[in-house]
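Before relying on records like the one below, remember that each one covers exactly one chain. Contacts with other chains, cofactors or solvent are not represented anywhere in the record.
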Amino acid sequence: MNSSHDGSGTHEEPSRVRGRRPARGEPLLDRAFRVLTCFGPDAPVLSLTALAARADLPKATTLRIARRLTEHGALERTDSGHYTIGLRLLEIASVAPRGHGLRALALPYLQDLWHATRQHVQLVVREGLECVLVERLSAHGAQRVMYRVGGRMPLHATAPGLVLLAFAPTRVQEDFLAADHPADEDDLVGMAEALRPKLAAIRRDRFAVFSRPQWDTLMTGVSAPVLDRRRATIAAVSVITPSEQSRPAAHIPAVVAVARAITRAMADEPSATRFS
């Protein structure tokens, strides 16, 4: 008789329950990641029923996976019996070179920029055809912005995203321009035609300025690239400020100077190649 494996095996037999069934042969690890990625800012705590619905898995399968993830500390149980992300994942993520490692090296310079501008200061890296916010320093009472640390941001609709796209390999740029983008996501008519000259200007000037409404306020970001020891762009530094409160262009020299300072620190760091 076949049995289900929640341990060392890479596959688990489809659960014999009514309703949805996992795709036959789908690796257990894939399903575990489906469960983990159900959590987010809008759903930090989930019941088993909600978790199964979001993961699109049978409840019995979700329960087995959730139990194993809990045993390993990737999930935790609340007093009410619901599930939330466990501290073990934070412990593992803390050694991610392009996350906390890069953040630790850049943080003193980001703090200098924050003290100079008293605005939102961000450190962002590219991940595929999106970018990820690694760190943000915000002044007390600063205007609320849309993206959280660890959250993903669009490449074409943020200043650091434009910098990372402009200095990305040509293949990445072409893949991005060829990809389908939601019509409600800053709909750019003729995206390729609009972006190509903009990206060329960013490569020439080595900084980007981009404005967009965030909540009810027009916010402007100024961003510049951070390079590794091989002179490849691995991150972008940015300042975000309400457009009507200051002249965003006034922040360009400070942002560029801090990005260059982090680049020099990367060159002096013996193990800095691990960040790229």
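The longest helix spans residues 97-117.
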